[in-house]
């Protein structure tokens, strides 16, 4: 979600809507549908999922906290993101909402092996998280090319609680990611509106400044930029190839 003083029309991105989020500003909204469900789908559909469940339960951890720690274990000396050098995912298993606005698109995975162990599951999970972050990068680029100026991401919601998801968004977009001090920041937003309605604050902006605080800023690892730029090239090739395959199958 990006705001601007003047209306900006971005192909494939919703809006602009006036005063929809912050009074006096225009809002554009570009999203990816059911990203949390996609991660669940990839993890729960893997042959090693029962083993993951058992080990996470034994440690009193969520399956995603366990996967994150397992990735740290198997990455050895390299950055964790480099584990997917041969594994690439296009995340539109449910069609593309933004910026391509194409409900016919499907998910893609390239680089699969016969391995079905926990290492394989963890790396597929990582590649899926990266694919969602590359989808965010694609939306940001579309918004910037239309006239938006974006330099920082503000992240809230359930996936913001996953440190791997946050770090991959920072690394892949090349932007710092700001997290709210209050974990349930969406509820704070509702409270801000209530405080304005009751007259405790003169404006939404004043309430925002008084009631919300930055909790943590996650910075990108700029030394990994070249790697993610190359993976992004592959990411774009995946959808290009998918459209070519569809054209071939529709042809005479």
TrEMBL record:
It comes from the Eukaryota. Keywords: Kinase, Transferase. GO terms for molecular function: kinase activity. The gene is FGGY. The lineage of its organism: Eukaryota, Metazoa, Chordata, Craniata, Vertebrata. Residues 3-197 form the Carbohydrate kinase FGGY C-terminal domain. This is FGGY carbohydrate kinase domain-containing protein isoform X6. InterPro entries: ATPase_NBD, FGGY_C.
